[in-house]
Amino acid sequence: MSMNEFMFGHVQAPAGRFNQKFNVLSMNISGKSGLEAGGKILLPPSALNTLSRLNIQYPMLFEISNQQKHRSSHCGIQEFSAEEGVCYMPKWMMENLHLKDNDIVDIKSTSLPSGQFVKIQPHSSSFLDISNPKAVLENALRKFATLTKSEDFVIEYNKNKYYLKVVEIKPHNPSNAISIIETDISVDFAPPLDSKEATQPSGGSTPQASGNGSGGITFGSQPIGIGGNDKKKKTGDDSDSDESDSDDDEPKFKAFGGAGTRLDGKVGTPPKSMMGTSPKPSSSPSTTSTSTTSSSSSSGKFAAFQGKGRSLKD
């Protein structure tokens, strides 16, 4: 302790730990059914006074447990408006703790690390039928303060309730829970419990989403093949034979390969192509050449002005 702290009293008292027992009741009994799809509880005003004296820091987080069933979870506080000795709790939270109305619940103050990553697994594939399930989840989590690993929780959207499971959290910690208040957290999804990816064994390991926690919605299913991916790969011999077959079968363009008709009505000699697109030597000529042009055609070269000239009078 410094001299200034000793003289002026600027010493912050060490925080104690809140630890009390309450009779638990369902949130519907409180008349605030809108809090059923959330992760916060109601406590009496006297609990606030005790927390203030203990110098509990915000956000106020709690560990709730059923000592008889050895079940525990974590939650936040919505408000201090319950009757004395009563704790109002969402029904899904009571089910996780195996609690019934008027059972005793132990509530202790706690601190949890801010979450960095969480993987959520929907119970039903119907959750994925929502146009934007990630946005719906992010909006619903505003009613929560904590998430506990391996715990089921409930959110509500369009008057429908969806059960979700916390599969993985980061950072890992002894409490197996994280705080999601005022923190940027990456959300990923595991395949729904009723999907084929979740039910089919894959080498003894549990199917997991293929994403890296960057916030995208990704699943463990194999990518769908796009046209042509399923074709058989060709070997070297097959490719050569296929190429030769394609050369034989595919028609080629032959420039000036037709038989011309002269003005006098007689059939003319088809000229050879000058651009290297002439038919293969194995192909037979389609027309009969005159004796004057046979020598030039046998050589395979174009001979300019070698044919016998004819006048229009002939």
TrEMBL record:
The keyword Nucleotide-binding does not apply. GO terms for molecular function: polyubiquitin modification-dependent protein binding. The keyword Membrane does not apply. GO terms for cellular component: VCP-NPL4-UFD1 AAA ATPase complex. Pfam families: UFD1_N1, UFD1_N2. Residues 270-300 have a biased composition (Low complexity). InterPro entries: Ufd1-like, Ufd1-like_Nn, UFD1_N1, UFD1_N2. Gene3D superfamilies: 3.10.330.10, Ubiquitin fusion degradation protein UFD1, N-terminal domain. Keywords: Ubl conjugation pathway. Residues 191-314 are annotated as: Disordered. Residues 18-113, 115-192 form the Ubiquitin fusion degradation protein UFD1 N-terminal subdomain domain. Residues 238-250 have a biased composition (Acidic residues). One of its GO terms (biological process) is ubiquitin-dependent protein catabolic process. Residues 198-211 have a biased composition (Polar residues). Belongs to the UFD1 family. This is Ubiquitin fusion degradation protein UFD1 family protein. It comes from Cavenderia fasciculata. The lineage of its organism: Eukaryota, Amoebozoa, Evosea, Eumycetozoa, Dictyostelia.
